[in-house]
Amino acid sequence: MEKKTRIHKVMAAAGVGSLRACEKLVAEGRVTVNGRPAAIGQPVTPGRDLIAVDGEKVYVDTRRKKRYIMLNKPRGYITTASDELGRRTVFDLLDGVQERVFPVGRLDRNSEGLLLFTNDGELANKIMHPSTHIDKKYRVTVTPDIDDLTLVTLSEGVEIDGKKTAPAIVRVLTKEPGRVVLEMTIHEGRNRQIRKMMEAVNLTVARLKRVSEGPIRLGMLQPGRWRDLTPQEVAALKNAAAKAQRRKLHA
After folding, report:
1. Phi, psi (degrees; rounded to nearest 5) at 131
2. Can you tell me the distance from the alpha carbon of 57 to that of 60, in angstroms, rounded to the nearest whole number?
3. Cα–Cα distances in Å, from 66 out to 15, 74, 75, 224, 249?
4. How far apart are CA 146 and CA 87, in angstroms?
5. Residues 44, 10 contacting (CB under 8 angstroms)
6. At what angle do helices 19-27 and 121-128 cross, to 10 degrees?
7. What is the three-class DSSP state of 39?
8. How far apart are CA 43 and CA 170, in angstroms?
9. Is 181:174 a contact under the CB 8 Å cutoff?
10. Is 147 a catalytic residue?
11. Which residue is catalytic, options 54, 108, 145, 148?
12. So what's the pLDDT on residue 149?
């Protein structure tokens, strides 16, 4: 008897997107199985049942090699596969990548630094899921100045979008008249979180760069360049995601 798997897992394994993104596609009625509308959690047989998104066939190859990539995203690129306004996207930088990979999380157009890509939907979902608190470290340049009280406020959490942020680690790297460079570590992934946090304490972000995510560090990778993660980095990332989920379950 052929093994059946829930449809969103098959789609994620095929590189369509993260598990959550694939579930959303199904919920929106954009997915069919053998020509009929798919249901959330529907069991399918990979390689036998014909899955399509918006009428386009999803190719399922159980032998497909999983790919894990890190990019040093420059400013001016948006984190999407295509843009109706013709703006540059991060996929324009992945020259030579044949696999259909997708970004793990986002960096807004004016932010830069470490951005992960993969076609491993299960790992991507673990990293991006709200219950997985993987540390993300940023170098943040703000203006005009910052005092000790503001540092404490940011560290303890501030209210954005009607909800207080989790505690963060904030320290001053350099300080000049009218300009401060901070190192900030958070483990949430809320939309434009750091920019909104700074706005809440009346600071303006002049530059925002992600330098690490969990055990993965940007290092000396030049802006606009990408490389595959090493097997050791992939293993460390998987371990970090698993440990974060276990901590959440026992919290």
Report:
1. -80, -15
2. 9
3. 9, 25, 28, 22, 28
4. 34
5. yes
6. 100
7. coil
8. 46
9. yes
10. no
11. 108
12. 96
